[in-house]
Amino acid sequence: MSPPAEKERAELETRRSKEVNLQRDNIIAVDFRQEPLMPLDEARAIHRENVRRFKSFAESQGLTFDDLLQRVLERQKRGIFPAFVIAMATSSDDELAELRAKIKASMQKKAQKKANPNSATAVDSVTSTTEAPKQLPPPSTETRQLRRFKERQQKKEHQKQQQRIVDIQQTSPHSDEAEQAVISAMMQDCQRGSRRVIAEVCAKINENFYYVPAHRTIHEMLVSLWRADKPIDLVSFTEFLRKKDQLAAIGGPGAVNDLFLYIDKITGFSGVPAEAVGFYLDIVIEKFIARESIAMWTEGIRRAYQTTIENEGGLQQVREDIELGIASIFSLNGSVASTFEDAAIEIEKPIVTPEDVIEGVLHRGGKASFGGASKARKTFLMLDMGISVASGSSWFPGFPTRKGKVLYVNFELPKAFCWKRIRAICDERQITLEKGMLTVWNLRGRVRDWPRLQQQIRPDEFALIIIDPVYKLLLLVGENIRDENRTGGVATVLDQIDALTERTGAAVAFGAHFSKGSQAQKESIDRVSGSGVWARDPDAIVTFTALEDEDCYAVEMNLRNHAPQKPFSARWEYPVFVRADEVDPSDLKQRKPAGAAEKKFTVEQLVNALSGTEALSGLQLKLRIARKLKCSDRTAYRLFDEAIEVGAVSRKDLKHYEINKDWKPSE
């Protein structure tokens, strides 16, 4: 680069550094082009308003005020905000008047230079009005060449951007061939007297999935004849289009005939199997999703441009709408209308049932309710179930799980206590979780965000979703039905869970609590508190009911889509439940009469109950005491120790103990 060009470049940098006169802690941004001669009080008002707007925008973007100002100043250097003048904030009238005079003089010089490009007068926006303008040497040939090169590059880049915009706006993704193949397959299948292809197509798409208007019309007419159970062949369908005044719009009889023969033409043989139509159908669906995505993002971009700093929450609302739109598009919710299905056709097809998450209890796409008394450790139970599925280990002996990803939605526990319980369960069961298999979503205090947040759960991502506790979702329904005893509110919550299972394909499990009082006289399905919908709606209802034995529970299952399971007993041993087959699951805990004294157990009762028992190990004898006397393990251990002290139980050998039949209590 020649010396004159270097000198000119250095002077330009000097002018820019003067234009941006910064003071880090006190900066204003005032648009003096709108009103160059504004009164001082108005300038101060604009200063205060701009500072407020800058602070508000900085907070919404997660930036400090200084970070935002630095960003604005850097963009000002690159000329991105030419309409704004960044200047030092002044406190006195004289300083502000001088600043305004400098800016006015700078604008006048720039206007003169624009009117007379050949003028060699230098522009200095921060030079005092009394200073004589500096004369710059004429630009060199190399400088002019560099400027032209930059202009050509900018022009090319602008053309590329315009080309990309044209592609987005005018070229919508579609496949004429796939659309014609789907319609042709439907027509030929109906011509042969079968309705299988049209039933399969209508179960997945409707006329809105087609890009070509003529294809939409033909699909709609075919479906109307099919649902009316009228014969469909080439001649009758052509006549039907003529009666509906649609034949000319789609190109006449020749177009219908060409469409009828299209699939034979592209495949090269006649009689395409119905299974092959799915290939073309997937292409039509894929192109439809692409078009809907482009439309959604284009609308989102338009709305984002219209948002301003004052419109607080505008960008947030745009983002939420886009998230909902993405979930709707990729799950095809709201796009495919539900259709009637012919049972005779469906039962001829291979019937594939969803795979089980917990074998014999819960399948994918199903709902399971886990009922128990308040503070009966239901959260531990469901965390244990989630860990079992995430690791592929058995949930209780006899209930294998199919390994899959699990999402635990925590509406109740503080985050630290949730992690503590998961660690305790994994340590007790000696399970090491793989990364990504158990995801915990801590949403304590954010129940009202659930309708929006749940759209982040992608289809087929999780095998099991656990919602704990489910009654929190009642906050999302109307106030007049926001009660677990109101059928409308409970039905609304369970319908939302149905939608979640349909969209994600996952099984959903949730906890429900029992009503107060003894549950011994109730059927297991009726023990859950609140509306009867809690008991009628889920596909699997698993109840944990307290037994007379301390810390023991009867596990009973009411299953809709699986074979019945026999009740069994479980004992709570922190931090998990373990199967206790030695405890009778029918011995439910009874309500104690008012004023009744606590049941006492004595060594004499032990001897009378176990008289004639063979020699047993210490552990076996303690379990036998608990079963015979129907007492807790703690009580059985206490009685065992007391019996040894008083001689009612004696050691037979190193491992076994026996009851002393001749023992009598001392008076």
Characterization of this structure:
With 667 residues, the protein is an alpha/beta fold. It folds into four domains: 3-139, no CATH class; 172-352, DNAb Helicase, Chain A (Orthogonal Bundle); 356-579, 3-Layer(aba) Sandwich (Rossmann fold), CATH 3.40.50.300; 603-659, Arc Repressor Mutant, subunit A, CATH 1.10.10. It contains 22 helices and 16 strands. The protein has helices spanning 3-19, 40-60, 65-77, 93-115, 141-170, 176-191, 196-204, 213-227, 234-243, 253-260, 262-267, 277-306, 314-331, 343-346, 378-391, 415-429, 450-453, 487-504, 533-536, 603-610, 618-629, 633-646, and strands spanning 27-30, 85-88, 356-358, 362-363, 367-372, 406-410, 438-442, 464-468, 507-513, 540-546, 552-559, 568-573, 576-579, 616-617, 649-651, 656-659. Strands 7-6-8-9-5-10-11-12-13 form a nine-stranded mixed beta sheet, with helices on both faces. A three-stranded antiparallel beta sheet has the order 14-16-15. Strand 15 (649-651) and strand 16 form a beta hairpin. Helix 2 crosses helix 3 (65-77) and helix 21 (618-629) packs across helix 22. The radius of gyration is 39 Å and the shape is flat. The termini are far apart. Residues 18-38, 79-92, 120-134 and 333-338 have low confidence and may be disordered.
